[in-house]
Amino acid sequence: MSRKYKFRDNDKLYFVSFSVVYWLDVFIRDEYRLVLLDSLRYCMVNKGLEVYGYCIMTSHVHLVVGSQQEPLQDIMRDLKSHTSNQLKKAINENPQESRKEWLLWLMERAGKKNGNNKGFQFWQQHNHPIELHNNALLQQKLDYIHQNPVEAGFVSSPEDFTYSSARDYAGEKGLLDIMLIE
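^ thats the sequence. predicted structure below, dont judge the formating
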């Protein structure tokens, strides 16, 4: 992994993205998106994670985050570890999941290829954090996050996508209590 992308300054905001191994479309089901949202809420309340923007796509997540408490790399590590375990459990226990065996097999396969894991891997290894050192870059990343579902053809307007902070920025109530950038 490149050393170029690291959380260097905890006083800054960061754009982070993380993807499911093999870019698997896991987040097509609400119950899996809710696991991720619950974990984000937990980190916000208990670890000091500040979320300024988010979008949960089918195979990946984009966030604009900061923290005045715990180091961001620790929060992201814990978030990914916890959601990995919870999502594995949710997939395994979901009687409606027709892809269960295939998904779990691919995630076990990815885990066995990676010595950092114990035979299972849900998320790809990296977060690719980008420090948002000015307002123009921050706005560019928020626009990118909010346009992602539009570009994918899921909705025609960013605020129509339920699993995004675009609703909050359009004056509507979103699913997370985010911190708005004015």
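The domain at 13-169 is CATH 3.30.70.1290 (Alpha-Beta Plaits).
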